[in-house]
Fold this sequence. Notes:
Its EC number is 2.4.1.-. This is Glycosyltransferase family 92 protein. It is a single chain. It contains ten helices and 25 strands. By secondary structure, it is of the alpha+beta class. The chain folds into two domains: 97-208, Immunoglobulin-like (Sandwich), CATH 2.60.40; 224-477, Spore Coat Polysaccharide Biosynthesis Protein SpsA, Chain A, CATH 3.90.550. The longest helix has 21 residues, at 19-39. It has helices at 2-17, 19-39, 50-62, 117-122, 239-253, 269-280, 302-312, 337-343, 375-378, 466-477; strands spanning 74-76, 82-84, 97-103, 108-116, 126-133, 143-150, 160-168, 181-188, 200-208, 224-233, 257-263, 284-288, 317-322, 327-330, 349-356, 361-363, 381-383, 393-396, 401-403, 411-412, 416-417, 425-428, 442-444, 448-451, 454-458. The strands form six sheets. Strands 10, 11, 12, 13, 14, 15, 18, 21 and 22 form a nine-stranded mixed sheet that branches. It has a seven-stranded antiparallel sheet with strand order 3-4-7-6-5-8-9.
Amino acid sequence: MAIKDKDKKLFVFSLTNYNAELKLLLTTLLLLCSLATLLQFIPSPFTISASDLRFCITRLSQTPPQQPSSILHEKLNSDQTIKRFFNPFGSSSYNFITMGAYRGGLNTFSIVGLSSKPLHLYAKPTYECQWIPSTKNFSSKPITTIGYKILPDWGYGRVYTVVVVNCTFNDTVINGDNNGGKLVLFASTSGGGDRNFNVTDKMEVLVEKNGDLDHTLFVSKPKFEFLYCGSSLYGNLNPQRVREWIAYHVRLFGENSHFVIHDAGGVHEKVLEVLKPWIELGYVTLQDIRDQERFDGYYHNQFLVVNDCLLRYKFMAKWMFFFDVDEYIYVPPKSTIKTVLHSLSEYSQFTIEQMPMSSKICLSDDYGKTYRKWGFEKLVYRDAIKGIRRDRKYAVQPRNLYATGVHMSENLDGKTTHKTEGRIKYFHYHGTIAQRKETCKLLVNSTNVNYEKTPYVLDTTLRDIAAVIKKFELKMIGSRLQNTTQ
Length: 486
């Protein structure tokens, strides 16, 4: 009897000991059953596939281990050598920063973004693209292709460099049934940064909804004849100079044109007032890209911006122009921009000769009236130095380009010509766009002048048409900008 009482006590003691473990086990089973029930009601787009699980497991296996609370710097080996340790913390730059992803055709896409410059200089990062159809059936499985990378900023990048990833899926028409889907980019460091780890980042870069794809877009006539892709605007810009520039170029390019302006901090309230009339008329699109300042790229990420503009509007324009808001495109009086570009239609790209103008020398005839004159009306002296190479700007037929630069593109199909003298040129008023005070520093009455060790000649080409531009502005938007100041 004593033995049985002892066994009974032992049994009760054991149950008491395992009580906590039993509660934990039962709670876990309850949660798993609840989760299994809930998964039945989740829509199919949210299902977890085997590939998703493999990706998660892969990422976990590639993630560097967490550092212990006590960092080990060195230890003495049994052979009396000193073993040194390297302990990494944080990350100096991102693997990939997307700005945009666009179709380049029925079976091809382009993704534009920033990536770590040291990663591309000292390693070989790779890219893979995957299209995941919205329709879930046997014939609509995800497909993948190797991404071809283009580095269009010619090494000008800083912490970040510009990367354009081209994803071409052989001869397959992507989203041919127009049921929608999404494009996923896998960006792998391939040992860059830390050779012990090949980290792959997965990002959803483009989503097409049911009915989004217009199959005729890639072969139909473009919406605009001329489209301007502006570089990043930053700093304390002069509203009057912006006013003059936009009025001049809307008249030059005509009613079938459009201007894409990128605000990197330069479109303050007064500049916005100048652009608003043209936005309302449908000539201007203003994009706020101020967040790009977070990422240290070349010149307010100028190369990133022009590539995004190229790829975004690639099929919307016959001709695309790249130049700045202190530069004025000009064609001779007996021609028009249409006739000039028609004569260059056999080329995918042509460059434009620069006419550098002084930003300080004005005519003495304008004494006391310079503040009333428009910038290109009063700055009439051109740099006459010969035999030096000057920057050129350019125009392209965008459907023939894969990526672009600031002064020209090296990634295109077709021919390029630089022999455009006499047909088209641009006047460059360097520094005037950010000058808020009176620009005229020297008033002269001569056809030739030497100033600051530079020879200048009188050139009134744009001054002679200033009245025509002012009249055009008045006709288009009325007098609402007449009180614009510098």
